[in-house]
Design a protein that fits this description.
The chain has 339 residues and is α/β, with parallel strands linked by helices. Helix content is 36%, strand content 17%. A hairpin with a 2-residue loop joins strand 10 (174-176) and strand 11 (179-181). Helix 8 packs parallel to helix 13 (320-336). It is globular, with a radius of gyration of 21 Å. The termini are far apart. The chain binds pyridoxal-5'-phosphate.
């Protein structure tokens, strides 16, 4: 039904228990950590790589303790995090990796599909994603030997692949790394949603190609403009899904910073995607008793890029005219902000 349900399933199969620790990047969507919080785990936020906004493996290494059970790397905007480094840390410390690949369906990292590198990975097909399932949708995948129990996590332990007489009285507890657990969630989607998603998945390659072309167009327009840091594009190893365009400014070269830029761009009617902010700024962490000030101090790069450097521009199929208007407006605003 959604990526968040997939995180919950991955965490439960990973044997997450109250008091265990889960490391996630400081900047992501709020639901990356909600299931871990709900399960009574302690969430530890790692700082980010300011160039991609993805989790910084060096800070993860510093924050691993004997209680760390899971690391949750996130593919922000569809751009893969440094999965080799994360997997190495996970292996060395016997930790599970649950990938938040909500933005990353169809991307890849060193030849492997994004979301399929860790122990579990979860994708979102919510209506704002590159492909969607009529409003809400998700897929969770695993490399763990969960056997026949894995699909039963979809609906409270039922084996819905079989007729009722085969599963009646045989609704099972599911066996994860930490022993048996009761699957409480109903994460079923409808056939109509599945049909819609399948038809969109057939167009996935074209959809990503249009988004990539739009990102390349914006980078080209911004080339050589002092103060603009272009969006990271594909490399031999990395194929993004271009869910979002990561736009960054270098405030040292301009009067003002991204906050001024965002205001001025909004005045020109250009939408920006505002969901991605440091999670220690969200009420739930404070309400749950986290020392959010200490977490903020432990993630200085996240704080700096959020306050001064980045915003996300949309890449969804825009007309050429809209794309040009967006590029023109960005360039005008940055020129106005020249020192
Ligand atoms: C990075 C990230 N993770 C997780 C989610 C949650 O996805 P879903 O709505 O499918 O649960 C989102 C949704 O936008 C997201 O942006």
């Amino acid at each position: 039904t959604n990526a968040t349900a997939g995180f919950e399933i991955g965490l439960k199969f990973s044997g997450l228990k109250p008091g265990d620790e889960v490391i996630a990047p400081a900047i992501t969507f709020c639901s990356t950590i909600s299931p871990a919080l709900e399960m009574g785990a302690k969430v530890v936020l790692a700082d980010i790589d300011p160039r991609t906004l993805n989790i910084d493996p060096e800070d993860v290494a510093r924050k691993i303790t004997s209680k760390t059970k899971v690391i949750m790397p996130v593919y922000i905007g569809g751009y893969p995090p440094d999965m080799d480094a994360i997997m190495k840390l996970a292996e060395e410390n016997n930790i599970s990796v649950v990938e938040d690949a909500a933005h990353a369906f169809g991307g890849s990292y060193k030849g492997k599909m994004s979301g399929t590198i860790g122990h579990f990975g979860s994708y979102s097909f919510h209506e704002v994603k590159n492909v969607n399932a009529l409003g809400e949708g998700g897929i969770v995948v695993t490399n763990e030997p969960c056997g026949e129990d894995f699909p039963k996590a979809r609906f409270v332990g039922f084996d819905i692949a079989h007729p009722i007489d085969k599963w009646l009285y045989d609704v099972v507890a599911l066996k994860g790394k930490g022993g048996y657990y009761t699957a409480a969630g109903n994460h079923s989607a409808t056939e109509i949603q599945a049909v819609a998603l399948l038809s969109q998945i057939r167009r996935l390659r074209d959809i990503i190609a249009i988004r990539r072309r739009n990102a390349e167009y914006l980078n080209k327009r911004f080339e050589g403009i002092e103060g603009i840091v272009p969006c990271p594009l594909d490399t031999d190893d990395i194929k993004s899904t271009y869910h979002l365009y990561l736009f960054q400014l270098d405030p040292d070269k301009l009067k003002g910073d991204i906050q001024d830029f965002k205001k001025k761009l909004t005045e020109k009617g250009v939408t920006q995607v505002a969901h991605f902010a440091p999670l220690y700024r969200f009420s739930y962490m404070k309400q749950l008793g986290y020392d959010t000030e200490a977490i903020r101090k432990s993630c200085p790069k996240a704080e700096e890029v959020f306050l001064h450097r980045f915003t996300h521009l949309p890449l969804y199929p825009l007309t050429q005219q809209q794309l040009e208007y967006m590029a023109d407006s960005v360039i005008e605003v940055v020129k106005e902000m020249r020192r």
